[in-house]
Amino acid sequence: MLHVSGLIFLTNAIHALSKRLYLYTVLFLFLSTTTFILHRYDLYDTLMYWIDQIGVIAVVALGSWYCWNAHWTVQIFSITTVAIIGYLYIKEQEEYPNDSWADNHALIHLISSIGHHGLIFSSIWL
């Protein structure tokens, strides 16, 4: 079921497209695809994991740039979102053996999607 949670990033792609943020749109489509494939077929020990990581890093990098250039209220929202994701990621690494971390990781997908929606919404200030 974890692979389905990765599809939440399609909402970011649609939202970014509606704001004419084409690079963000392409990156979210890429991330949705790689995340779905990675989690659906359990390809964590393969090249697919690293391809997915490229998508994650690209989205985070562009999101960071948007955050840097956003209104201060959006910056606070973004920093809070990153802190929550960081906490969940650390908790996931420490407490969940094997595949029992899936629900927590799905929550990471959801919260990061919401954070990026905030950045996309704030693009009126860019």
Describe this structure in words.
Helix content is 79%, strand content 0%. It has six helices and no strands. The N and C termini lie far apart (36 Å). The mean pLDDT is 88. The protein has helices spanning 2-5, 9-18, 22-40, 47-68, 72-95, 102-121. The protein is globular, with a radius of gyration of 14 Å. α2 (9-18) runs antiparallel to α3 (22-40), α2 (9-18) runs parallel beside α6 (102-121) and α5 (72-95) packs antiparallel against α6. It is mostly helical. The longest helix has 24 residues, at 72-95. The chain has one domain (2-125).
Write down the domain tally. Answer: 1
Averaged pLDDT: 88
Query: Biggest β-sheet, characterized?
Result: none
Give the % helix.
Answer: over 70%
How many alpha or pi helices?
6
What structural class is derived from the secondary structure elements? mainly alpha
Order of H and E elements:
HHHHHH
Terminal residue distance? 36 Å
Radius of gyration: 14 Å
Note poorly predicted spans.
Answer: none
This entry's quaternary arrangement is: single chain
DSSP, total strands: 0
Strand % is under 5%
